[in-house]
Each structure stands twice: as C-alpha cells, then as structure tokens.
Design a protein that fits this description.
This protein is of the alpha/beta class and about 250 residues long. It is built from nine helices and nine strands. The strands form two sheets. Strands 3-4-2-5-6-1-9 form a seven-stranded parallel β-sheet, with helices on both faces. The chain has a two-stranded antiparallel sheet with strand order 7-8. Helix 2 runs parallel beside helix 3 (about 55-70) and helix 3 crosses helix 4 (about 90-110). The N and C termini lie far apart (about 50 Å).
Amino acid sequence: MRQVSRSRSAGPAPFHPVIAAWFSARYGQPTPVQAEAWPRIAAGEHLLACAPTGSGKTLAAFLWALDRLLTGAWDGATLQVLYVSPLKALGTDVRRNLLAPLAELRTAFAAAGLAAPDPAVLTRTGDTPANERRRMLRRPPAILITTPESLNLLLTAESGRAMLRGVRTVILDEIHAVAGSKRGVHLMAAVEHLTHLAGEVQRLALSATVRPLDRVAELVGGWRVTDGEERRRPVAVVQPPGAKTYAL
C-alpha cells in the first residue's frame, strides 16, 4: 500500500478525502454544531460547543483528531487526545462509539489502497485494574478516556506525567456537570497543570445545556501569561440555533 496523501478535500474542515467520503456515506450532511465547530477546531481554536443530545457533539470534537491520527500527521504511538468526563459510565460508551468509526475508516483507507495506522483507545478510571494501568503507562494509547479524579492522579506520578507530555487536545465532556463546583476547579487546575507538561493543548468543552455560556467559556479557557501579562485564553462558543424534532 502507498502512504496516505496529505491532500485535503474542500468542506467544513480540511478532512482527508477518504474521511470526508466516509462521513458523507455514513451520516450525510454535518449537523449544525459539526459544521460550525470543525473549521474552528482545524484552526486550533479553543472551543465550547453547546448543542442538544444527539446532535453529534462528540464526533464534532473527535473527528479532526481521528483525521490527524489516521493520516499520520500525529504520532499514534504516544498519547495525543485526552477525553475527560465527570461520568464514569460514559467512558465505555465513548470508547465503543470511537472504535466502530475507527474500524470503518481503516477499512475505507484500505479500500482506497492507502495505509492507515491503528490508534489505540483505552479507558482509565478508578475501576481500571492495576495491571491495565501499568500496561498503558508502558504503551500509551493514542486516545485516553478518563475522569477528572483519574487525571489528577496521573499528574501526581512521574510515570503519569511522562505519558501526558505529548497530549495535543483535551476534550472536556459534560462540562455543565462540574462548572461551578469543586470538581470543576480541580479539573481546570489539572488542565492548567497539563499545559506545563504538554504546552498549549487545544481545549474542547462539550455540553447539552450550560449557562451562562460566557462564564463557562472563561472557565474552560483559563489564563495564560503572554509578554509578562496574564490574559484570558480566547474560547470560541458554538451554539447553533435549532429546535428539537420528534418522530412518533
């Protein structure tokens, strides 16, 4: 097989043609939140996306990273994407919902005669057996699904910090569940700690409903020192209009 081409297709974000074709065949047109979010994510902006359940927010947050991993633009042998949710029960669902598209995409690349990596997706929570935790420290996944508490534990150990040094994107799901609480403070403190290890990682926060948007965006962005002065990180807010529809 020849290597993946770096050419890009036109569209809401410069996805590889195979990925763009897969999405069109699988889902049709992007949802409003996807269409608004992808150009900003591809441009490296920090983002707060607020849209109803079932609107495709999770895929909106992940697909650009999958593009980068499958085309070899990012090194899938190191941890690149950190997904954090305050709800442990989401971890299994999110992992399953990532593995299926990844398998389909690798099949699509193979059908096009292109070689694509097989990025690992693992979950680390308080329920993860100790032997699995040790294994992922030795061989980090490309995508790690975790909780705020487990992230803080990783940051307290040198082996955990070493695994996190290559992170490029952190996805903060269900941000409304922690905004305004001590868990939210601990989570964002962990993200700030992460920036000291990995640099200015891209922050993507997701919520079905959260108010007020500007205050939550400020929480997500936090502060950074630029030219000796503390400034807020700009965070784009995506909240496409639209009413829920029901099929009876």
